[in-house]
Specification:
With 403 residues, the protein is an alpha/beta fold. It has helices spanning 3-9, 31-44, 57-67, 91-102, 113-124, 145-148, 153-167, 182-188, 209-215, 237-245, 265-276, 289-298, 314-321, 332-340, 352-364, 367-383, 386-394, and strands at residues 19-24, 48-53, 75-78, 106-109, 137-141, 171-176, 193-196, 223-228, 253-258, 280-283, 301-304, 326-329, 344-347. The longest helix is centred in the last third of the chain and has 17 residues, at 367-383.
Length: 403
C-alpha cells in the first residue's frame, strides 16, 4: 500500500477475533439506509466494525447523518483515493488492500451486485479476485439473474464464473431477498451458506393520517396515492404520470410523488402540470427519514408499478408497516408477494390502462376490503421488521459457545 492510500485508509483496527469489514461505496438510493442497518446489526453482536464507504468530503456528511452516534463505535476507510478512483483501481483490490493491512475475520458487501458481473466474467476465464480475500466474501445479492433466468450468453458466462468461484470456495455467506429461491439454490450450491433476508423497515409508521397530511401540506379529503423513491422509468413513474393524466377531472385521486426525479423531460413536465392542476404534489428531492414516515402515513395507497423489476422492494415493506394497500405490476417477486399475501391489487405489467383501473378500483373499494388489506399488510410487516432483519443478517456469523 503506498503512502497516499495508507493516509486515506485512516485508523482502521488491528485484527480482533471477530471483526468485519462492511463494504458499500455508494451513497444513492437505499445505500445510506442499508449502511445504517448493516452497521447496527454487527455492532449489536459486538463485532469490531470497519466501514469502507465513500468518505470523500462531498459525501461524508451523508454517511455521518445516517450513522450519527454510531460513528464513535466504528472505524472508517475511504474506498476512494483523492482522484476519485478506487484504491488499487477496483473495488475488490481496494478491499484486498484493506484486508492485507488489517486482516478482518469477515468481509461483507452490502450489495454483491456492485462487482459481481465483472468478477464472474473474469472468473469464467480463470481470472480470480485477489487471493487474500478468498473464503471471506459474504454479502447481499439483490439480483442474481444468472441463477434463475433463462439461459443467455451473458448469463451462461456469469454462471460458469460463479461455479468456478464456488468450487474454489471464495464465498462464505450469501443473502438473497427472494424467499422462493433459497431452497433451490442451496441444493445447487450446498457448500455456500445461502440465507433469506427480509426487506427491512423501522421507525414510526403509525402517525395519524391527518397530522401527516398537515405536515406535508396535502389536501385533507383526497384519495392520495404515493409514488416513493428515486423517480425513474424502471420504477414505472412514466406509467403513473400517464395514468393520472387520464383520470377524469371529477376523480378524488391525488398523487404524492416523493423522491428525486430522473425521467425524460416530457414526463417530468406532465407531473408538474398535474401539480399545477391541483392533482399532485411533487417532492423532487431527497426525502428525509422523518418525511418518509409522513409520506406513507399521509397516503391511502402506495404505487409499485415497476418495469421488469427483478427482486424485492423496500417500499412494499414500508407500505405494509403503515397499513397501506399497494398497487403493483404483476411481475416477478413484488407481484408474487402482493398476490400471495393479499397486500393490495396487481395489474398487468406495463399496462397504463390497467394501472388507471386499479387506482380507480381501490379508491372506490368498500371499507371491509380495505380493512382486510390493512390486516394482511400489518401481518407481512411483522415478518420484515428490522429486528427480524438484524437476526437474519448476523446469525450465520455468530459463533455460540458450547457448554
Amino acid at each position: 500500500m503506498n503512502k497516499e492510500d495508507k493516509a486515506l485508509f485512516g485508523d482502521a483496527p488491528p485484527s480482533p477475533s471477530q471483526s468485519v469489514l462492511i463494504v458499500d461505496p455508494q451513497v444513492e438510493g437505499h445505500h445510506l439506509t442499508w449502511i445504517r442497518y448493516i452497521t447496527d446489526a454487527f455492532l449489536s453482536q459486538n463485532f469490531k466494525v470497519t466501514l469502507m464507504a465513500d468518505f470523500r468530503p462531498q459525501h461524508a456528511s451523508k454517511i455521518h447523518n445516517v450513522l450519527q452516534d454510531r460513528l464513535k463505535d466504528i472505524q472508517r476507510i475511504c474506498a476512494f483515493n483523492e482522484n476519485g478512483r478506487y484504491h488499487g483501481n477496483s473495488c475488490l483490490k481496494s478491499v484486498s488492500l484493506a484486508q492485507k493491512e488489517y486482516g478482518f475475520s469477515h468481509i461483507f458487501f452490502n450489495e454483491l451486485d456492485l462487482f459481481a458481473s465483472n468478477c464472474l466474467r473474469q472468473a469464467a476465464m480463470g481470472r480470480y479476485p485477489p487471493r487474500n480475500i478468498k473464503g471471506l466474501l459474504s454479502g447481499i445479492y439483490f439480483r442474481p439473474r444468472f441463477l434463475f433466468e433463462k439461459k443467455t450468453l451473458s448469463n451462461s458466462i456469469k454462471s460458469a464464473g460463479f461455479k468456478r468461484l464456488y468450487q474454489n470456495r471464495w464465498f462464505k455467506n450469501i443473502f438473497l431477498m427472494d424467499e422462493q429461491r433459497i431452497e433451490d439454490v442451496s441444493k445447487k450450491f450446498p457448500d455456500i451458506n445461502f440465507n433469506f433476508l427480509p426487506d427491512p423497515w423501522d421507525g414510526n409508521f403509525a402517525i395519524d393520517q391527518k397530522d401527516a397530511r398537515s405536515c406535508l401540506n396535502l389536501p385533507p379529503n383526497k384519495f392520495i396515492v404515493l409514488q416513493f423513491g428515486i423517480g425513474t422509468k424502471r420504477k414505472g413513474l412514466h406509467h403513473v404520470a400517464n395514468a393520472m393524466k387520464n383520470l377524469p377531472d371529477s376523480s378524488d385521486v391525488f398523487l404524492l410523488c416523493a423522491g428525486k426525479l430522473s425521467i425524460p423531460s416530457k414526463f417530468e413536465r406532465l407531473l408538474y402540470k398535474l401539480e399545477a392542476q391541483g392533482k399532485a404534489k411533487i417532492l423532487n428531492r431527497y426525502v428525509s427519514d422523518t418525511e418518509e414516515k409522513f409520506c406513507f402515513c399521509a397516503s391511502d395507497a402506495v404505487l409499485l408499478p415497476y418495469v421488469h423489476h427483478m427482486g424485492s422492494s423496500g417500499v412494499l415493506s414500508r407500505a405494509c408497516a403503515a397499513g397501506k394497500p399497494v398497487i403493483a405490476s404483476d411481475f416477478d417477486l413484488v407481484g408474487f408477494r402482493v398476490k400471495q399475501y393479499e397486500l393490495g391489487l396487481v395489474f398487468e405489467h406495463g399496462s397504463v390502462a390497467q394501472l388507471k383501473t386499479a387506482i380507480h378500483k381501490l379508491a372506490q373499494m368498500d371499507i371491509i376490503q380495505k380493512e382486510k388489506f390493512k390486516k394482511n399488510n400489518w401481518g407481512y410487516a411483522k415478518r420484515c421488521h428490522y429486528k427480524k432483519f438484524k437476526q437474519a443478517v448476523t446469525k450465520p456469523f455468530v459463533i455460540r459457545p458450547i457448554y
